[in-house]
Design brief:
There is one protein chain. This protein has 259 residues and is an alpha/beta fold. It has two domains: 101 residues, no CATH class; 143 residues, Rossmann fold (3-Layer(aba) Sandwich), CATH 3.40.50.150. 53% of the residues lie in helices and 13% in strands. It is built from eleven helices and seven strands. A seven-stranded mixed beta sheet has the order 3-2-1-4-5-7-6. Helix 2 runs antiparallel to helix 3. The model has no long low-confidence stretch (mean pLDDT 88). The structure holds S-adenosylmethionine. S-adenosylmethionine (SAM) binds next to helix 8 and strand 2.
Length: 259
């Protein structure tokens, strides 16, 4: 059970708030006759935050979830008390942030996107290699997939953050380019791809190389944006002339064995 909460921290964070609620009600209920309304709400929110943070910590979630658990009821309550603002936009904002970033703590891969210059270089690379199929592992909003799909090329992406996946899927449906699938990159079949692209973080690179070097077909190519595979020499490193001086690390598959 604890493993589930560590894997999907948002569930643990929600559970902590839900469990804290009746405790806070039980403690503050009897005070309602003796304490004024506004200070009582303040005490309740503070208690809710403290208990929720305690539970979040006991579930083994990362430290910044404790901070969120503590601040969330206070922020929600203050907004309601101060400006007579409706509470639902804060709830929706919380949910959206969770849907976009909930996988960040798990996979240590945040969301940032490949720029159009890099996508254009990747397209030229596919053209030069006459590559017909490509896969973007952790495709974000699917920009690379849509940029590379077409003219005989099939581009696909796999993404596991729910809201990001939905947005990518919608964008690809609207412009009719690329295929986006919801899933875990670690469980994705890469054996049929001519090119696999990833723009992740340093954390997964060693494990990812183990998977790709074992599963991709000989003659195919793995391209990593910005993050090299530790202890493996890339065949080439391309430094692009875009503003962030993007570096692409190219790893041909099966080259060592063939040579
Ligand atoms: C840095 S973004 C890159 C997005 C896109 N490839 C691009 O270059 O524009 C990395 C993406 O990988 C996704 N991701 C992280 N771990 C993943 C996993 N295990 N399976 C699928 N997607 C994952 C994240 O949600 C995020 O959208």
């Amino acid at each position: 059970m604890l493993a589930l909460f560590r894997k999907t921290p948002i569930l643990g964070a929600l559970l902590a708030q839900v469990v804290a609620l009746p405790v806070v009600a039980a403690v503050t209920g009897p005070l309602s006759t003796s304490v004024e309304r506004v200070p009582l709400i303040g005490i309740a929110l503070l208690l809710q935050g403290l208990i929720a943070a305690g539970i979040t910590g006991a579930l083994g979630l990362a430290r910044w979830w404790l901070l969120i658990a503590f601040l969330f009821p206070l922020a929600l309550g203050s907004a309601m008390l101060l400006g007579n603002l409706p509470a639902w936009p804060f709830g929706i904002a919380f949910l959206l942030l969770a849907l976009v970033f909930s996988n960040t703590t798990r996979g240590r891969v945040p969301l940032y996107l490949t720029n159009p210059e890099t996508a254009s270089v990747l397209k030229d690379l596919m053209r030069d290699r006459k590559a017909a199929r490509m896969l973007d592992l952790g495709c974000g909003l699917g920009g690379v997939v849509r940029a590379l799909d077409g003219e005989g090329r099939q581009a696909r992406g796999v993404e596991n953050a729910p809201a990001v996946y939905l947005a990518a899927r919608l964008l690809s449906a609207v412009n009719g380019k690329g295929k986006i699938r919801r899933g875990d990159l670690w469980r994705t079949d890469v054996s049929g791809e001519d090119l696999v692209y990833a723009f992740l973080s340093p954390a997964p690179m060693a494990g990812l190389w183990q998977k790709l070097s074992a599963e991709m077909k000989p003659g195919s190519l793995f391209v990593s944006n910005s993050f090299p595979v530790p202890d493996v020499d890339p065949d080439e490193i391309w430094e692009l002339s875009d503003a962030r001086k993007t570096r692409l690390f190219l790893y041909p598959i099966g080259k060592a064995e063939a040579g």
